[in-house]
Structures are given as structure tokens and as C-alpha cells.
Fold this sequence. Notes:
Helices cover 30% and strands 30% of the residues. It contains two helices and seven strands. A hairpin with a 4-residue loop joins strand 6 (162-175) and strand 7 (180-194).
Amino acid sequence: MKDIRKYSKAKGHGTVPVTHNAKQGDCPRFTGKAVESGLSPWRNDGFAFIAALLALLLITAIGMLVFTASTSDIRTSTRITGEKKAFSAAETGLYKMIQNFDPDNLSGSATSGSASDATTWPQVDSATDPDSRYRINTPAAPTSGASYLPLAGYAIGGGQQWGQSRYDVDITGTNTRYSSRVEIGVGFGYGPVEISTTYK
């Protein structure tokens, strides 16, 4: 250890030694205020924050896209299911109409209940599918075209002809759970009935 002494004179005082303890070969080091205070002109905190924010926004956008796609698929699936149930209910109504059809009592083939209130319509199956219902309008003769259609093999000698009388009917099927509704128009024939105008 080298002892370096400097002397200075002060008025009214003796010599005052000023001592610095340093190793030989050492040189003074400069430490700036930025280093002493812990600040650095090249900090990466701001860039890391922006990068994290962008990553969060990207993840949020992807999540919203997946959620929207899933919701759209669910809505489409729900709509298709409801339409299938409503169409099945309309088919059930058609079968019921065919079973109960009476050309002498056309209004008797129609179902009761309010046209605007589907809850008053007959149920397809009260046990397994109580939400599917159908409504049968009153069958009527067609407003255009032939009223009768001949049936092959039913012609009898002497001028008698047999065929089918034509009718049109509208049947509506609905499912109150899915709020779906399907209306079908059906043309059908009833016979055999005599369609000749002359008798033997």
C-alpha cells in the first residue's frame, strides 16, 4: 500500500495532510449519476410491455373468432334440428288426414285449434315429443285442372269408368321448443269412385 500525502496550507492553521489509500496501478473510476441511480438509457421494459400487449390482443382475437364460429355452428345445428322436427310433425299430420279422410265430411278431416296458437294443435307424441304439433286445414277440390283422374284397370264395359277424385290440403308442422314451422301443400286422390257420366 502506497501512502500518498499532499499538504496544503490554510491561513491560521498548520499543514493538513490529505491522504488517499490506493493500490499501485489503480486509476480513478467514473460512475455517472445514471448508473448510481439504477437507471439505464437502454432499458427493454417498454418493448416487453408492448409485445405482451400485442400477444394478448392476438389471443383475444383468436378466442373471439373461435367463439363466433362455434356459436354460428350451434345456431345452424339448432335451426336444422327444429326444421326437421317441424317437417316430421307435418308428415304425421298428413298420415292422420289420410286415415281419417271422409269425402262426405271434409271439415271433419281438419284439426281443431286456433291457427295462430300452436299450443292448441294436436301433439305428435305426448310422451316422447310433446313439443311437435301439427295442424290440418280443411281439404278442398282443386281450383284448376281435372277434378278426377282415371285409374287403369278399373274400366268396365258398357261405358262405366272409375278413378280418383282430387283434393288439395295444406298441413302445418311446428315445434314449439325450437320455434320452427313448416307448411306443406299436398294433392291427393280418393278412390276408386265412378267418374263416368253414363250408366249401363
